[in-house]
Design goal:
423 residues, binds serine, BirA Bifunctional Protein, domain 2, 3 domains
């Protein structure tokens, strides 16, 4: 089954169960200053969990479902391995209290809780022909007790003890996004040893000091990573062989002269991510979220260069993303705008890169001590505009260690430089 069909099946499944289907919100959160970019499906619904907004008034039901565009920056350095992504899609169903009859046979529109959420997740996974390996539940830690209710529901569904693992706060407690908001214990579903679905029971509100208060009504916030789901459904070696990347992959394979999996995955991820960010109105800058875009476009440029792909080919690659996703995300249907903005940034960065790379090759020997290395990377930054994260990437490629000491030296010089620039 193709990704397009799975999106449809998911939304139909929850629509049938009384959920109002809500389009993805923008990657630029309009109403949530706690984060730079949208990182989770629940973000556009935060105020329904806290009762600042009334779901019945806005949706005519207490249940919603969505496929949300998400962008997480925490793992940028990890991109290139088999599983990390910056941009991804998340399939989710949500319930905002008060909880009514929490029976999976009750199709709404009242609020539901653990039983319906778990039964439906189980039923949906089964309906796709997948087998759940095991699940995890919150085992209790600190002031938050063991989630016995979820444990018993999984038992009811036939899961033996050794397939319901208890985990602590690190693994099975989600949220809040940013420094405050709804959060709660989770139960997570694993297929082929991959966590594919996170069911969060938003029972708490965490304030800025990290203190938990009970929410007036508990809610449900589930999120299933779409790329992971497609990987287990299509039984591909990694997420990058699923049909979500098929168009891009076919084009890149034709263009590429070097077989470097890591760089190819960086291109897949960063290209797709930047197309979506630009489509949502973001432009590259040196500030906050604009810098996120700038950073991934720079890494994209660097990796295209190493793969010996001419920048002119970006046009075809951008088109491949729009062709694949434009049907579901109509905001992507502005090829010229997206292409022009990406081109402008990568072409201007390429100039910096060419001279910076030359100088890097000339001065970095690989046997300098940590302080000298910090100084040289600082020099490349101030005199050639070569961003430190790009230098680090180059060092990594040459297997030259960037130590804490080198980082310290760099930061020290950088601070001084900032003070001087400020006058
Ligand atoms: N908020 C949870 C997550 O992002 C579930 O949707 O994983």
């Amino acid at each position: 089954m193709k990704s397009e069909e799975i999106r449809k099946l998911f939304l139909e499944f929850f629509e049938k169960r009384g959920h109002k289907i809500i389009p993805s919100s923008s990657l630029i959160p309009y109403d949530d200053p706690s984060v730079l970019l949208t990182t989770a499906g629940m973000q556009q619904f935060k105020k329904y969990f806290t009762r600042e907004k009334d779901p019945n008034q806005d949706f005519g039901t207490q249940r919603t479902a969505s496929i949300q565009k998400c962008f997480r920056t925490t793992d940028i350095e990890e991109i290139g391995d088999e599983s990390h992504l910056t941009f991804f899609e998340m399939l989710g169903n949500f319930s905002f209290g008060p909880v009514g009859n929490d029976d999976p046979a009750n199709f709404g529109p009242d609020g539901y809780f653990k039983k319906s959420a778990i039964y439906w997740a189980y039923e949906f996974i089964k309906s796709l022909g997948l087998e759940i390996d095991y699940v995890t539940v919150f085992g209790g830690q600190g002031e938050v007790p063991f989630d016995e209710e979820s444990y018993k529901i999984w038992q009811e569904l036939g899961f033996p003890e050794n397939k319901i693992l208890k985990r602590g706060r690190e693994d099975n407690f989600w949220g809040p996004t940013g420094d405050e908001g709804p959060c709660g214990p989770t139960t997570e579903i694993y297929v082929d040893n991959l966590e594919i679905w996170n069911l969060v029971f938003n029972e708490y509100y965490q304030d800025k000091n990290g203190k938990l208060q009970k929410l007036q009504y508990p809610g449900v916030d589930t999120g299933m990573g779409f790329e992971r789901l497609m990987k287990v459904l299509q039984k591909t070696p990694t997420i990058f062989e699923t049909d979500l990347f098929e168009n891009l992959r076919n084009i890149l394979e034709k263009l590429v002269k070097k077989d470097d999996q890591r760089r190819k995955r960086i291109v897949f991820d960063h290209l797709r991510g930047s197309v979506f960010l630009v489509a949502d109105g973001l432009y590259p800058s040196n500030l906050d979220r604009g810098y996120v875009l700038r950073r991934i476009l720079r890494r994209l440029t660097l990796n295209l260069k190493f793969l010996e792909i001419e920048l002119i080919n970006l046009e075809e690659l951008i088109k491949a993303v729009i062709d694949k996703y434009g049907q579901f995300y109509p905001e992507l249907k502005k090829f010229d705008k997206i292409k022009n903005m990406i081109y402008e940034e990568v072409i201007s960065f390429e100039k910096t890169l060419v001279s910076g790379l030359k100088e890097f090759e000339r001065i970095i020997k690989g046997n300098e001590d940590d302080n000298i290395l910090g100084e040289k990377i600082f020099f490349l930054y101030t005199s050639y505009g070569l961003p430190v994260e790009i230098s680090k990437e180059l060092l990594r490629q040459k297997q030259i260690n960037w130590s804490e000491m080198a980082e310290k030296k760099f930061n020290e010089l950088f601070k001084k430089h900032q003070q001087i620039s400020k006058g």
